[in-house]
Amino acid sequence: MRPRKQAAPFERRNMTLKLIVWRQKNPDEKGQFETYTARNITPDHSFLEMLDVVNEELIREGKNPIAFDHDCREGICGMCSMVVNGIAHGGHERTTVCQLHMRKFKNGDTIYIEPWRARAFPILFDLVTDRSALDKIIEAGGYISCHTGGVPDGNDILISKTAGDYAMDAAQCIGCGACVAACPNGAAMLFTGAKVSHFAALPQGQVEAPERVAAMVKAMQECGFGNCSNHYECEAVCPKGIHTKFISRMNREFLKALFKENTGTFTPSEK
Amino acid sequence: MIIDGKAPTGPIETSWDRCRSSLKLVNPANKRKYRILVVGTGLAGASAAASLGELGYNVEVFCYQDSPRRAHCIAAQGGINAAKNYPNDGDSVFRLFYDTIKGGDFRAREADVWRLAQVSNSIIDQCVAQGVPFARDYAGYLDNRSFGGAQVSRTFYARGQTGQQLLMGAYSALMRQVRAGTVKVFPRTEMLDLIVVNGEAKGITLRDLLTGEVRAHTGDAVLLCTGGYVNVFHLSTNAMGCNVTAIWKAYKKGAYFANPCYTQIHPTCVPQTGEYQSKLTLMSESLRNDGRCWVPLKQEDKDKAPEKIHETERDYFLERKYPGYGNLAPRDIASRAAKEVCDDNRGVGPAGRGVYLDFKDAIQRLGENVLRDRFGNLFEMYERITDENPYKTPMRIYPAPHYSMGGLWVDYNLMSNIPGLFVLGEANFSVHGANRLGASALMQGLADGYFIIPYTIADYLAHTKPTSVTPEHQECVKSVMEVKASLRRLLSVNGRRTVTEFRRELGMLMWHSAGMLRSNKSLSETLATIPKIREEFWQNVKISGSETGLNQQLENAGRVADFMEFAELLCVDALHRDESCGGHFRVEHQYEDGEARRNDAQFCYSAAWEHKGPGTEPELHQEPLRFTSVHLAVRSYK
């Protein structure tokens, strides 16, 4: 066996950062900004790992750590949600805040960290918000109503590669709500448009298309989300790069549904 | 004691069909009189809840995340297997069955695996009907890719986000039932106890993570679909919140825990960059279709830029050791091979813990665009984490804990030894034996939820009157009091070390002594150390905040406390299993070429452990494994 050399230890290039973080104890309290220092941060820390380091320090000092939602830490579960320096997820193309790395910052930077701010997303605690309104929109019609079992063979439904790719582009949405947080109107039209378009593009989704778009748009409005006025902020911050063409598609689907008499779920006066 | 899995006997080809025809049914009008509690909303939980809701049962669903759509199945990238044989390359239900049994190193119950292979095709059909956008070829047909441990292409995929798309399918089916009023979802709740009344599972005690309220929910059956436990190793590809708590609490209430030592180390993860990091990101196994694993042949080359190392100076170690399967060798084998070359001081990157996964040849053969189409999102993810471009320079990867094959013991009907307690998906031990093949976790989760539990639960409920147990029942009151007391005990310690420090200490101990390689010595030492860490935890852990309201430290502390107890059981099982099989590699038992050496004469059984109270050794029950359709063989991928 060959002699073993000591492997090089993890590289350390320390950064110190000033954090200005939104703290709020409950939905009714008026929150405020607090200032903290993040020490011993390396460029390889992810943004949330940087917050972990700060929290460890706060706990040792007997203070309450900063609460934030997170889980998979690989940019797919959609749980992490914070506004960094005024931009949802921190402003790097197609990157959730859990995938944002500290090499994008410089030693000595000041970083502002806030929760999603939108009428439909009440702040629950620090950076944690209530995004159940997005579930309500799906509940209203974000599905194909097939039962378990009794469906045809997978290859009995042919789908062109173009349609499949288009549906997949839309279906990539992780439901994080950054689009809502970034929108000046607090609209969830990118989220809703993506789901409507995903199903509208597929033959399986045709049968219920008019009812689906009508019900989902209605739920969207009832939940307190605004409407689109073409700012394109949603597309800019979307960590999955969901295109605003899906909002146009939803508007078209909605218009088509208006002319269909069999929707049953709404009448034009309810619009 | 010998326990019986109640698997059907007779010809295996018809075993599930015969069983299904003999299971009792519940009349549609009676179904609404039963309430079923489902804990966890991954593929198993969401698909079970949706299917049971459709049938007319009242279903309550619980998850710790803010929405059922966030469960960690969402992170599965590569794909889902099915025996469709669409590519005409010789696949069949038997081959998928055989590959899964062999992949699991002959340590799974044969009939369960057959059933999984049999229903695999229905899963694809179901998901297509739901609108899951699987990859298609230009004629509009479903496309397939290859995966580790198989010589046919049977993996269906949706870019590198198959888990996400399948979970969205199950989640949308679930939300449809919420709309229909059959399912009620309780997000941001965590199960902290199982309620057993007269020997039967009748409810759970949970903590509302937002308000801190501890309360009981009761029902006629409890389904645990709470995933795996490899966060016990601290380093893992699991989500930060994944934990053993729900199944551990059930174990402490009498449910048998089977094969806890069967854990899977995934070969292709982005290497760790520092001690602060516990979550490691997986790079899909499907990358090994087109990527070639190598390290420098010479130790002195390991710090050289990879492009400066000549072809003849490279060791393509998987192709060298396993010419038959090459870079597609199964996960446990590929992981150990990577560790071996790093232990030989030929590993690359920080701390010398990494091997190259090189796409240069594939890019030359297929072009960058084809690779972008196949793996674009994975390459982007890799670049975000490491700041290196895998189209230009090889990826660096290293093994990390990924999946647990062990879990609560269940019979063929997915029911644990506690009547009324069912366990689905990764949380049970049923089909993967000692090692799981790629693209079969998604398959199992959906098989259990869509196509098995709707039949088998009826057989139990048909024998059971709708329960009269309410949250006021004395067992519920007692359970709520106990949970509250243990939360207060955690808060009252007020020591000096954080929960994360303890989690890291326990996890690193487990990773180094009970991770990829295990020995009598390492396990015995670990068994002596764990109680000391646990003792210190209960005397020196520091948790700020209170039991009311959101307290993420308290949530973590409870999970780590359970890992501290569970780690011991894992080591007890690993020490008792004096053989190597699949992901359980005991250094004392290997062939000359370093392959795992099973001992079928002594260990051809599943080990189910029964809790005997704190401070007492758990009792071992054995379920013998009988193979009628396959022959026990040395698992070779050469």
Explain how this protein is built:
Chain A has helices at residues 47-60, 132-141, 161-171, 178-182, 189-200, 209-222, 233-237, 245-259, and strands at residues 15-23, 32-41, 83-84, 87-88, 110-114, 123-125, 128-129. With 271 residues, chain A is α+β, with helices and mostly antiparallel strands. In chain A, a hairpin with a 2-residue loop joins strand 6 and strand 7 (128-129). In chain A, helix 2 runs antiparallel to helix 6 and helix 5 (189-200) crosses helix 8 (245-259). Chain B is globular. Chain B folds into three domains: 12-264 and 403-461, FAD/NAD(P)-binding domain (3-Layer(bba) Sandwich); 266-401, Alpha-Beta Complex (Flavocytochrome C3, Chain A, domain 1), CATH 3.90.700; 474-612, Fumarate reductase/succinate dehydrogenase flavoprotein-like, C-terminal domain (Methane Monooxygenase Hydroxylase, Chain G, domain 1, Up-down Bundle). Chain B is built from 17 helices and 19 strands. The longest helix of chain B is centred in the C-terminal third of the chain and has 25 residues, at 552-576. Chain B has helices at residues 15-22, 28-31, 43-55, 93-103, 110-130, 162-180, 245-252, 317-321, 331-343, 360-366, 368-386, 441-461, 474-493, 499-514, 520-540, 552-576, 600-603; strands spanning 35-39, 58-62, 80-81, 155-156, 183-186, 189-197, 200-208, 214-218, 221-224, 257-258, 263-269, 292-296, 314-315, 355-358, 395-404, 407-408, 421-423, 605-610, 619-624. In chain B, a hairpin with an 8-residue loop joins strand 18 (605-610) and strand 19 (619-624). Chain B has 638 residues and is an alpha+beta fold. At the A-B interface, helix 1, helix 2 and helix 3 of A face helix 3, helix 5, helix 6, helix 11 and helix 12 of B.
